[in-house]
Design brief:
Elements lengths: L1 H14 L4 E7 L9 E7 L10 H4 L10 H18 L5
Antiparallel strand pairs: 1-2
Length: 89
Amino acid sequence: MIGVVRRVALAVEVVVPSERTYLLSLGSQQGSTHLHWHIAPLPPGTPYEEQQYHALMAENGVSPWSVRQAFDLAGRLRVILAGAGSGGG
């Protein structure tokens, strides 16, 4: 599974300008017993004091996205992933 997550994260780095990409796995046996991944590109030029945990906290702001932008991003990711093949990386 991590191979697929890595492929998607690398595709995100191709289509989304970023300083770096945070990859987090979250889940809990106490609340919602599942595992899911967050692939979070950090916008370029983000000051150091606004990186790390600060950048991942919604109370510090989120990037506004329209449905159209989300569909466009998904399409660009599909193109990158289709070109990468199924061999992983």
